[in-house]
Amino acid sequence: MVQSALNHHAAALIFAHNHPSGDPEPSAEDIAITRQLVFACRVMGITVHEHLIIGADKYFSFADQGYIARINREFAGKNE
């Protein structure tokens, strides 16, 4: 994903995936991969604006729930 973004000179990304169960609540793995994606993109100078999980009739927004901002703060703290 990051390589493709670099190949296309992307400045920012939005990630999305679905949960076939219909429940859009993120799993521990969803949170971990979001953190890895944000960190990898930050290293390469790419901003992650959002990661959405689509369920049956609803969605979960990592940005709206504050995850993206917290992960960015964590990254900044590790790289000061």
What key phrases describe this protein's structure?
Cytidine Deaminase, domain 2; alpha+beta; three-stranded mixed β-sheet; single chain; 80 residues
Please state the CA-atom Rg, rounded to the nearest Å: 13 Å
Distance between the termini: 26 Å
Q: What's the overall geometry? A: globular
CATH-derived architecture: 3-Layer(aba) Sandwich
Indicate the CATH class: Alpha Beta
Unreliable sequence segments:
none
Q: Structural class of the secondary elements?
A: alpha+beta
Care to describe what's here?
Helix 2 packs across helix 3. This protein has helices at residues 2-7, 28-43, 67-78, and strands at residues 12-18, 47-54, 59-61. The chain has a single domain (2-78), classed as Cytidine Deaminase, domain 2 (3-Layer(aba) Sandwich). It has 3 helices and 3 strands; from the N terminus they run αβαββα.
List the helices and strands and how they pair.
Layout: H1 2-7, E1 12-18, H2 28-43, E2 47-54, E3 59-61, H3 67-78
Parallel strand pairs: 1-2
Antiparallel strand pairs: 2-3
Helix pairs in contact: 2-3
Please give a quick description of this structure:
The chain has helices at 2-7, 28-43, 67-78; strands spanning 12-18, 47-54, 59-61.
